Amino acid sequence: MFKVIQRSVGPASLSLLTFRVYASPKKDSPHKTSVKVNELSLYSVPEGQSKYVEEPRTSLEESISHLRRYCEPYTSWCQEMYSQTKPRMQSLVQWGLGSYEYLQNAPPGFFPRLGVIGFAGIVGLLLARGSKIKKLVYPPGFMGLAASLYYPQQAIVFVQVSGEKLYDWGLRGYIVVEDLWKNFQKPGNVKNSPGNK
C-alpha cells in the first residue's frame, strides 16, 4: 500500500540514531475517506439490553457464607486487640533493643553490681521461708537495699517518689474509711440495735 522512499544502511553504532521514514500512498490506489473510531467493529456496541442474572449459590458457597457470619465477631475482636496491642508491643521491642544496646556497652563495674543485687534477692528469698508475706517483702527489700548502696542518688529519688505515692494512697484510704464510718453512724442506717425493740 505504501512505498518507502528512504532506506538507511550503516554500521551497528549508527543503529542507535533516529531516522525519519517517509511514506507515500501508491499512485494507483483510489482516495478513500477516513473511517471514524466509532465506526470500527472493535468499538461497536452490541444491540439489545443486557440483564444480570445471579447464579444460584452452591452448598459450598452457603457453608462458607455461614462460616464467615459465624466468625465475624471473633475476627473483628482479634483485629481490635491487634490494633490496641501493636503499639505496646512496638514500644516493648524498642525497650528491649535499648536494653540490649545498653548491656552491650555497659559501664565498667555494672555486671558485678548487678550480680550483688541479684544475690541479695536470692538471700532474701532464702530467708523468707514459710511465710507468703515474707516472700513478697524480703527479696525486693534486700535487692532495694543492695541497689541503694551502689546507686544512692537514684535510691533517694525513688524513696521520695514512692513515699509521696504511699502518703497519697494512705490519705485516699483514710477518706474512704471515714466516709464509710460516717454512713454507718447515721441514725437512719442503724438496724436491730439494743435500744430499738
Automatic annotation (TrEMBL):
Q: Which InterPro entries match?
A: MIC26/MIC27, MIC26/MIC27_animal
Gene Ontology terms describing biological process: cristae formation
Q: Name one Pfam family in it.
A: ApoO
Q: Where in the cell is it found?
A: Mitochondrion inner membrane; Mitochondrion membrane
Q: Name one GO cellular component term.
A: MICOS complex
Q: Per UniProt, which keywords does this protein have?
A: Membrane, Mitochondrion, Mitochondrion inner membrane, Transmembrane, Transmembrane helix
> Can you tell me where the transmembrane regions are?
110-128
What binding partners and quaternary form does the record give?
Component of the mitochondrial contact site and cristae organizing system (MICOS) complex.
Q: Which family does it belong to?
A: Belongs to the apolipoprotein O/MICOS complex subunit Mic27 family.
What's this chain's function? Component of the MICOS complex, a large protein complex of the mitochondrial inner membrane that plays crucial roles in the maintenance of crista junctions, inner membrane architecture, and formation of contact sites to the outer membrane.
Q: What is this protein called?
A: MICOS complex subunit
What lineage, starting at the top, does this entry show? Answer: Eukaryota, Metazoa, Chordata, Craniata, Vertebrata
